[in-house]
Amino acid sequence: MNIDKIHKNWTALGADDPMWVVLSDPAKKGNRWEINEFFESGRQEINGVIGTIQKMDLKLHLGKALDFGCGVGRLSQALGNHFTAVDGVDVSASMIEKAKSLNQHPEKVHFHLNVKSDLNDFASNTYDFIYSAICLQHIPPDFQKKYIAEFVRLLKPGGIACFQAIHAHGWRNHVPNWFADFYRTLRSKGKPFIPLYAIDSRSVHQAIQSNGGTIKKHDSSPYPGWESRYICDTFVVVK
Question: How confident is the model at residue 49 (pLDDT cuts 50, 70, 90)?
Fold first, then answer.
């Protein structure tokens, strides 16, 4: 997929069932997410992430934060409970429109459509904290590497990035992404679909370290529901 196809695919997905494509609980498909429950999951997630960072004895400044792959703002609004300013970024026009309509902190949380393979609309050394979850895994690996490098560029010196990706194992290692995209396109009969893209950990490490970041933590565990195909990686990075 190129960036225009990614934009069209996720704009269509977001127009149909925006909360479910973010948190794909089978019981919630068909716009069955209750709004308060959906956003409460974001608050719990961000509280847990901040608690983990504090336990690592890292200094987290609560100035400006970036939520990459913000969707309808589940995590952006949760970050707004801690940080003085938050930018949410997404490639889906429908998701950004919905995020703006649901925004409970318009004075400090702002949403941006970014249909680009970089984050050049945002200045270097801007953010104290960058967070991304269940997002990079839906982006082809060449783009993932660019965005991860951009995370480091955007961080202030001493800033922290926490993000998640997946890498393949077992038989999935032997299936090229172009074939997986071809198969998904055939199976979906031209309708939008949720793709998954693995990136090997060595590429992530290189993207971080070659751009001035230091990996403070890298955890791996089986990806729930996809254990036979993917391993979930979480990274904590300091600039």
Answer: very high
Task: Please state the pTM of the whole predicted model.
Answer: 0.94
Choose among 45, 37, 46: nearest CA to 19.
37
Identity of the residue numbered 216: K
Residue 53 CA from chain centroid, whole number: 18
The β-bridge relationship of strands 127-132 and 230-238 is unpaired
Q: How far apart are CA 60 and CA 20, in angstroms?
A: 31
**The residue type at 144:** Q
What is the separation, in whole angstroms, between the first and last Cα of the chain? Answer: 31
CA distance linking residue 84 with residue 91, whole number of Å: 24
Tokens of 73: 């703002």
Best CA proximity match to 53, nearest among 160, 165, 204, 164: 160
